[in-house]
Predict the structure.
Amino acid sequence: MITFQFLLTALVVVVIPGTGVIYTLALGLGQGRRAALWAAAGCTFGIVPHLAAATLGLAAVLHTSALLFSVVKWAGVAYLLYLAWQSLTAGGTLNVRADNRAQSGWVIARRGALINILNPKLSIFFLALLPPFLSGSAATATAEMALLGAVFMALTFVIFMGYGIFAAAARQWLLGSERVMTWLGRSFAAVFALLAGRLAFERA
């Protein structure tokens, strides 16, 4: 169940920067703390379908169905490339600029949720991560999976909030340099493109 080993494992997984972290940092730098918190909430909510799939055994279906895996994977690749483009385009939703207009929190959260929903490896990841920490009782396995998943989601939200708040604080120091902001926008675009490339080579 919820052991120190599980918490440590989950913490390491969440802390390592991935697509959701990059997205949250971009929103924090571009639009401030409020946007970063909505981004963190959206990325966390995007975990729910994968946790449900792992709990119900659907992840195994995704893993064995090459067609289904490919459809979700390439949708994810296209979406990450879209985010890369939005980081580069003047007026793009992820462009890191001082004059960016604040976006609706629901729009930010929905985009963050899609980042995780369109990553087919997450379901398989939960299928591999959670079972070793179960008690072994078939009667309580589903409840235990849900509890462990909820703890993982809580850690995700807290850590992502930390990243977002840090980015929002750093924003105040960086807004005065147009060159730095432009460089950051290009860096985020490059990271999203690299993550899209890595996802493209993933196999079920």
Summary: The CA atoms of residues 121 and 204 lie 8 Å apart. The first helix runs from residue 4 to 15.
